[in-house]
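Much of our argument rests on the idea that a fold can be written as discrete symbols. This step matters because it turns folding into a mapping between discrete strings. The record that follows shows the chain in one-letter code together with its fold in token form.
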Amino acid sequence: MHPDEMRPPGKQEFLYPRSKYYGKFSPENLAFNANLQEFSQRISYLCSLEVGGKLTPYEAYEGIKEAWETLNRSRAGLHIGDP
């Protein structure tokens, strides 16, 4: 076992975990996968904050909408899904 695998995750790894990419490799796919994981994590936080009463439903909606727009711009800029 590698020594890095034995240490507990740092604050950054704990709050923003990343999974390995297993799809067809290209720099664009890898970048989009990272953006998609960030989107997923952000949505999870927004939902948790809303359920916990720290955000209003409207604030959560606006945050989700902004995250979606950012992800969509990323997809378009990386030409993911283009014919």
